[in-house]
Amino acid sequence: MSTPVKRNLHSISAAFEIPGKFLEARPSGSSGHINDTYVAIYQDGGMPVRYIHQRINHHVFTKPVEVMENIARVTGHQAKKLKAAGYEDIERRALTTVPARNGLAYHQDADGNTWRTYLFIEGARTYDSIETTAQAAQAAWAFGQFQAQLADLPGARLHETIPHFHDTPARLKAFQAVVKSDPLNRAREACREIEFILAREDWTGVLLEKHAQGLIPERITHNDTKLNNVMLDDTTLEGICVIDLDTVMPGLALYDFGDMVRTATSPRPEDERDVSLIEVRMPIFEALVDGYLGATHRILTPSERDHLAFSGKLITLEIAMRFLTDFLQGDTYFKIARPEHNLDRTRSQLRLVELLEKHEDAMNEVVCAWKPKG
Predict the structure, then answer these.
(1) Residue of 27, 33, 92, 270 with fewest CB within 10 Å of its CB?
(2) Are 311 and 289 in contact (CB under 8 A)?
(3) Which pLDDT value is given to residue 30?
(4) Which helix or strand (DSSP H or E) is residue 54 part of?
(5) What is the strand order of the sheet 21-27 is part of?
């Protein structure tokens, strides 16, 4: 790490209520690409103690103070729930924010950057992809437990850190508008993909209609339910802590489960060019259902359970729409590594939608057959 960055982190560390002497800080090796994350080491009582310092990307999260207000409320409530349940290792099972010296959960530096500090969770790590049913079950249980813990969060509604994030009908309207305007004359390259999406227009409003009818309640959701946002214990491989809480906000529980299905059931990356390699791993889906319902069966409504399988194909269709919208607009939102990267992503996701459609009856049978253990 360069001396100016180290000096800056040393001054940032002084803004937080951290006992001990600052020794060093290094960029985190995690796979996050939005915020700047550093692992810092302090000497406290003759022992090295690690913390996470993180600078929030205010270009992505334009209201970082609201992000931190959400996180402080959520993690504080988690800690209370864990204590009431008799857990002794609370600081490993929920992120712990270290307060700034002014009492807030964040510090704003002279350049206008917003910083936060977490206790480092020892003896656990994240993984970038799901390889086993055990990993799938533990990740799903952790995200489900996260929702269950926050079902009775008191106080006002959380801030929407990204408004209308999973408003699928709104995503469809944006897609239809750019197809019609076709600003870069790219629509001819994606005729089949456009037709595929428009043929499934009726799906887009299903969950929000059920919500309007009172059958699917608004909950607190994570909105980025990839495996690498759950820390697994090094020894037991238990999913112990959900991390990366910037997108925690009001939403539907099915958004989170649907994105787990999207990111976990296929063994291939979301930009796979050879769509013949994409598949739906039913044992992984069964593990997701087992873990998720194991944590949430007491809070979910019948309509939420009935739409678990549907949510996977809906969220996958939504992200495909977003990729194709960006391609037609000129690749202005998602980072690309090649000229047709967003079109490749679209095709990969639409192939997964097609396969999820074929497996939907079997998936519904898995959900219907699930019973609590014990």
Answers:
(1) 33
(2) no
(3) 58
(4) strand 47-55
(5) 21-27, 36-44, 47-55, 114-119, 107-108
Q: How far apart are CA 374 and CA 5, in angstroms?
A: 53
Name the DSSP class of 159: P
Nearest CA-CA partner of 25 in 2, 59, 57, 47? 2
Over range 342-360, report the average pLDDT: 98
Place of tokens 């929920």: 94
Work out the mean pLDDT of the chain and round it to a whole number. Answer: 93
Domain ranges of the chain: 3-122, 133-369
In the structure encoding, which two tokens stand for residue 79, read together?
Answer: 């800690």
Q: How confident is the model at residue 4 (pLDDT cuts 50, 70, 90)?
A: very low
Please determine, looking at this structure, whether the domain spanning 133-369 carries the CATH number 3.90.1200.10.
yes
Q: Tokens representing 113?
A: 């950057």
Residue among 157, 65, 52 at smallest CA distance from 104:
65
N- to C-terminal Cα separation, the chain: 52
The phi, psi pair for 334, rounded to 5°, reads -85, 140
Cβ 97 vs Cβ 105: under 8 Å: yes
Residue 294 exposed, middle or buried by CB count within 10 Å (0-12, 13-18, 19+)? middle
CA distance 97 to 372: 34
Is 3-122 assigned to CATH 3.30.200.20? yes
Q: Is the pLDDT of residue 99 over 90?
A: yes
Contacts for 345 with CB less than 8 Å, ≥ 6 apart: 270, 271, 320, 323, 334
- At 29 the pLDDT is 66
